[in-house]
Description:
Helix content is 77%, strand content 0%. With 581 residues, it is an all-alpha fold. The protein has a domain at 337-565. The N and C termini lie far apart (68 Å). Mean pLDDT is 76; it is low at 271-288.
Amino acid sequence: xxxxxxxxxxxxxxxxxxxxxxxxxxxxxxxxxxxxxxxxxxxxxxxxxxxxxxxxxxxxxxxxxxxxxxxxxxxxxxxxxxxxxxxxxxxxxxxxxxxxxxxxxxxxxxxxxxxxxxxxxxxxxxxxxxxxxxxxxxxxxxxxxxxxxxxxxxxxxxxxxxxxxxxxxxxxxxxxxxxxxxxxxxxxxxxxxxxxxxxxxxxxxxxxxxxxxxxxxxxxxxxxxxxxxxxxxxxxxxxxxxxxxxxxxxxxxxxxxxxxxxxxxxxxxxxxxxxxxxxxxxxxxxxxxxxxxxxxxxxxxxxxxxxxxxxxxxxxxxxxxxxxxxxxxxxxxxxxxxxxxxxxxxxxxxxxxxxxxxxxxxxxxxxxxxxxxxxxxxxxxxxxxxxxxxxxxxxxxxxxxxxxxxxxxxxxxxxxxxxxxxxxxxxxxxxxxxxxxxxxxxxxxxxxxxxxxxxxxxxxxxxxxxxxxxxxxxxxxxxxxxxxxxxxxxxxxxxxxxxxxxxxxxxxxxxxxxxxxxxxxxxxxxxxxxxxxxxxxxxxxxxxxxxxxxxxxxxxxxxxxxxxxxxxxxxxxxxxxxxxx
Length: 581
C-alpha cells in the first residue's frame, strides 16, 4: 500500500464500523433537508411553472445549500474522525506496540491520517452526483463546483492535520477532540473579530485592530470563508485568492504532519516533545503542579474527576495562546458595544420607553456571542461526557472502578460533575455576558432567566446523552459519534415536519434573548406581532423537551448501570436471606 500497513488496517476497520454507515446516512439526510429548503421556498414546490432564468436561480440556490451542508460536515465531522486516532492508541497502551514495529513515526501518522481523511472524502462525495445534475440546470458553473470541492478538501486536510497534531500531544481522545474544536472555532472567528475591531477606526480598539493587521492577514490567508467574504461573496472574483489559500493550507498540513511524526516517539518515551537535546525546556513543559491537590474527602469520584486528571503545561500554554487570541479582540468589541448601551441606559433608564437603538445593537451582539459560547460549551460537554467512561475502558481502569464500594450514582455523578468542572471558565464567561446584558438593559429580566434555564437544561441534556452513550459503547470514537449523530437528529429532524428550526438548535437560544421592546410588544400590545405566538410555543417546548430528555437519559443510565457495566448486583435479596440464616 502507498501509506503502509497502518493505512490498510485503519481503512478496513473504519469502513466496517456501524457508525460509519450511520454518519453517512445522517449526512445524506442533512443534504436532503438543505436541498429541500430552496425547493420549498420556490414556486416549483407549489406545482407552478418556472422560467429558464428562474430555474437557473433555483439551481444556484441548490448549490449554495449543498455547499453549506458540506462545510458543516467538514467543520463538525473532521475533528471527530481524526482527533482520537493517536490519542486512543496512547490511552489504551497500544502505541508502544506500534512503535516497537519496524514502522517509522511518519508511516504511523500518515497511515492513520490518510485512512480517516479518506472516510471524509467519501462522505463529501455523496453530494457529487447532485452537484453534477445541478450543472445541467444552468446557473452553476462546472469549474465553480470543482473549485468549491477543492477548497473543502484542502480545508478538511488542514483541520485533519491539526487534529492529528492535537491527538499526538494528548493522552485522551476527549481532550484531543475538544481541543481541535476550540482551535477550529478560534481559527474561523479571529480574522472576523480583528476586522470588526479595526473598523471602529478610533480609540484603543481601532489602534489595536490596525496593529493586529498582520495576524489577521496570516489567519485570513488560511481561512477560505474570510477570503470569500472579503471579496464580496463573489466566487469568481475570489478564485485566485482561494487557490492561494489552498496552497497555504496544504503547506501547513505538511508541516503539521511532519511535526507530529517528529514528536511522537519522544512523547511516548516520556522524554518530552523535544527529546534530550533540550532537556531543560522539556522539563519545564512536563506535567507539573503549581498548587497542591485538595483533600479527597468523602467523594473520591468527584475528587478524581476534578483534581486528578490534569493536562500538561505544554497543552495549557497552547490553550492559553488560543484563548488570548480570541479573548482580546472579543473583549475590545464588547467594550465598544457596551459603552453606548450603558450611556443610553443612563439617559433613558430601564424599559422600552425612549430611544433604545444602542441597546438593540448590543442585544444583537449578545445573541451572536452567547450562541457561539453555547455551541463551544455544548461541543466540549459532548466530547468530555461521551469519552468519560470509555476512556476508563480503554485504559483498563474501568474494572478497578467497578470493584470499589461506589454505586452507579456515585460514579455517574462524579463523571458529570467532572465534565462541567472542566468547562467552568467558559461557563463563567457565558454568565458574565448574560449579566452585562441584563445590567445594560439590552435583555429583559424574564428573557434572561428563561435563557439561563434553557441553557442549563440543554447542557444537562447534552451531558446526560453523552454519559449514556459512553456507558454503552466500547470506544471513545464510537460514543462520540453516537452522541453527535443524536444531537444532529434532534436539531434537524424537526425541520422535516415543517418547523423553521429544531427545538434543540442554538437558534432557539438566540430567540430567547429578547429585549424590552420584544417582551412589551408581546404582553402589552393590542395584538402580538406576527409569528411571536409560534416562537413562544417553540421556546416553551424546547425547555420542556430538554429538561424531560435530560431526566430520562439520566434515570435510564442509573437504572441500567449495573447491566450496562456488566457488574452483578450486590443487594440480591436471596443472598441477604441466606446470610441472615
